[in-house]
Structure to design on (229 residues):
């Protein structure tokens, strides 16, 4: 059981928008910044979002995120087949003194 | 360019030990916190441990505390993970990752090294 809860899967058509939710609690998302990672098969995970809604250099603005206290949401617009991957939210948990990941969400671009 | 290369993975028997290494280049290693993270077959990402820039502060996941030890050699630009009392449940790809400067977030990841625990 992950401390952060994500839906196991989401799907949408190319060109459409999809959102992935991540729900936590006070000691983790309530008190700390959220991050999002993209994990393509056979590749190392890639940081997509940090500090709730900031994009590292090179991440397109098709990827965005928002936060509402203990929940965060990743939005991907203009879906491409290359976006098919597993997406993970993550944050520091102050009560566990540990970094925690969500269980991951598999995105299928139909 | 940030470059992280893990090594030391392989096949080990249950109850055995293994030491993973992560060679860093392209940045001032001694300035950054670092983490080890793994992914077991068919499972999600699992954070294991992190270590602060000077090595004096470390944190562990409950699943590995007491069995795994994270360490670093800033003179050699290297990160390590000593893994003891390994079980089949430790079979995974192990990644080292550099954090965002002075933050908890792992930002740059190596390609990973596979550890298989089996008799």
């Amino acid at each position: 059981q992950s401390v952060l809860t994500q839906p196991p899967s989401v799907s949408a058509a190319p060109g459409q928008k999809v959102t992935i939710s991540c729900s936590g609690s006070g000691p983790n998302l309530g008190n700390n910044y959220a991050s999002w990672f993209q994990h393509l098969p056979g590749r190392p995970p890639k940081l997509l979002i940090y500090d709730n809604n900031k994009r590292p250099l090179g991440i397109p603005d098709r990827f965005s995120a928002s936060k509402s206290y203990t929940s965060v949401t990743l939005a991907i617009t203009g879906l491409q087949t290359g976006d098919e991957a597993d997406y993970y939210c993550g944050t520091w948990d102050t009560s566990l003194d540990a970094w925690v990941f969500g269980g991951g969400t598999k995105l299928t671009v139909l | 360019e940030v470059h992280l290369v893990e090594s030391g993975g392989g096949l080990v028997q249950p109850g055995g030990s293994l030491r993973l290494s992560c060679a860093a280049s392209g940045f001032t290693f001694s300035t950054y916190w670092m983490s080890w993270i793994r992914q077991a077959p068919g499972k999600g990402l699992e954070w294991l441990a992190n270590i602060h820039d000077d090595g004096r502060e470390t944190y562990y996941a409950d699943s590995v505390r007491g069995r795994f030890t994270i360490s670093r050699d800033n003179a050699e630009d290297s990160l390590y993970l000593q893994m003891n009392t390994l079980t089949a449940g430790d079979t995974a790809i192990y990644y080292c990752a550099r954090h965002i400067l002075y933050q908890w977030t792992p930002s740059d990841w190596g390609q990973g090294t596979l550890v298989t625990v089996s008799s």
